[in-house]
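Task 17 of the worksheet. Students: predict the tertiary structure of the chain below and write it out as structure tokens. Keep your answer in the requested format; marks are given for formatting as well as content.
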Amino acid sequence: MLTIKQLTENVEAVVRGLEKKRFSNAREAVTKVLEADNRRKLAQKELDALLAEIKMLSKTIGVHMKNGEAKLAESAKHAVAEIKARTGELEAAMFQAEEDRKQLLYSIPNLPYEEVPEGRSAEDNVVVSTGGRYRDLPENPLPHWELAKKYNLIDFDLGVKIAGAGFPVYIGQGARLQRALINFFLDEARVAGYVEIMPPTVVNAASGYGTGQLPDKEGQMYHCEEDDLYLIPTAEVPVTNIYRDVILREDELPIKNCAYTQCFRREAGSYGKEVRGLNRLHEFSKIEIVRIDKPEHSAQSHREMLDHVESLLRKLELPYRILRLCGGDMSFTAAICYDFEVYSKVQDRWLEVSSVSNFDSYQANRLQCRYRSADKKIHLCHTLNGSALALPRIVAALLENFQTPDGIHIPKALQPYFGAEMIK
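Model answer:
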């Protein structure tokens, strides 16, 4: 969440940034936060004064007792009791003001960086680069859901029977392709210096609040009500929360973690070809990369993460493009975000396979993820994360772009993991 310092230093800049994110009632929201903070400050000021008065009166009670001035001592005791009653009221008022301020801050998104384009939706995102190879396809090429059926790779109907729409069952070579991609992505992350984590796939509410999924995305998360636990939408949540309420040493940064998990999302979007097959699922596999860094180095970390994701797409020989998201299409928590998309000639559309975001200090402030610098001062870290990569649309793109009359070719980099050159 935003810090009070950010809000008070330049209110107009904050309002402009929130409006760039298409956050409604930005000025009103900021005003309410500052009003709550002012109530807390006034209560604190009065409480401090009363506590000082209690301290002074307590000393006089001892003096009066020593001097045999029982009535004066009793009067001072009565005054202390009255003041203490008032301090209780002020403590309650401070607690309420702090709680009001926190809940208001939870409802306000992160501020976008200056280089984030203006815009309302995905149509306003900016293509910053393209790459990869466009392959010649056979006559009458098939979409991935038909290829999956033809080669018995994925059974979507069986998934409906077991769980419901959006929960595919991978079979035989389809399951092996999934496992090959998972191991390939994890090995590439390890070579790039990421330490692998195997986290839980359920988290408590504190973890959801820490990374900003709660309360913003509560309706999109699967909630186990009896235990008050949430199925994770991405490994970002448990991995980043490792560093909640932690003060790191400066020489530990940057921290680089990666994790493979299943991911769960209730919201599955619209109907039709946009969500057909693997295009959008309720459960899917993903490898996530997460970094914790110093503010002055986080932009470099972001660049390195972008380069890492791009290298994966190059090695998979897929046509891709990189977009800088506009303010209106960015996530609630991101300060800047780039999306990677691969092209499906069969579907005639671009498929998002990764988002790589820098959250600045927004998540770190929620998490109280900090580091101690060489001068012993405590600072908020910056947090970053990205998909490297999400599997469903990568699988869809591989099946569609590598189909031949004789089967589906496996990219050279993936062949040692898959154990064959073709799916037949």
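Marker's comment: The radius of gyration is 27 Å. The chain has a mean pLDDT of 94.
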